[in-house]
Prior knowledge:
By secondary structure, the protein is α+β, with helices and mostly antiparallel strands. It has helices at 10-14, 31-36, 42-45, 72-76; strands at residues 18-20, 27-29, 51-53, 60-62, 82-84, 92-94.
Amino acid sequence: MKKEDNKKSIQDKLNTIKYNCDSKTHLKVEQKKCLKCREKTCTFICPANVYSTDEESGYTIVQYENCLECGACKIACPKDAIDWDYPDAGYGVIYKNS
């Protein structure tokens, strides 16, 4: 890793990741469970900010296009409300050799 890479913010590093987005999501949330969740762990555990909460409805918004496929959201969800799977073959994060 180059020395200047250590000085980049997480957001700068996330901006270098390439995606091949599918037209359908690989992340599904059970809104009934999410509405009962006070912690909203998914909104802060995800390094790519995939999850947010609609202030008016309380529904969880999922921007699956940004997913890094780390699985942190599924592991951390206290309500077990996230159905997480890998994207279909050929889609998702395109990793490069460093």
